[in-house]
Amino acid sequence: MSIVKMKKVRVFGIDSEKDVFLNRLLSLGCVQIVESSFDENSIQAQLLKPVSDTALEEFTSKKASLESALKILNKAAPKKSGLFPEYTPVKVSDFFNSDFLKATLEKAEKIVQLNSQLEEKYSLISGARTKIAQMSPWQSMDVPLNMKGTGYTRVLFFTLPEFADLAQVEKAVCEVSDLVHIETISQDKDQRYMFAIVYKDKAEEVIEKLREFGYSEADFAGLQDTAAENITALKEKIAQYTDQCKELSDQIIAMADCREDIKICIDEAQQEISRESAKGKLMSGGKVFSLEGWVPVSSQDKLKKLFDDSCCAYEVSDPEEGEDVPVQLKDPKVIEPINMVTEMYSLPAYDNIDPNPLIFPWFTLFFGIMYADLGYGLILLTLGIIASRKIKRKGTLKYMAGLLVLCGITTSFCGII
Question: What is the pTM of this model?
Answer without folding.
Answer: 0.74
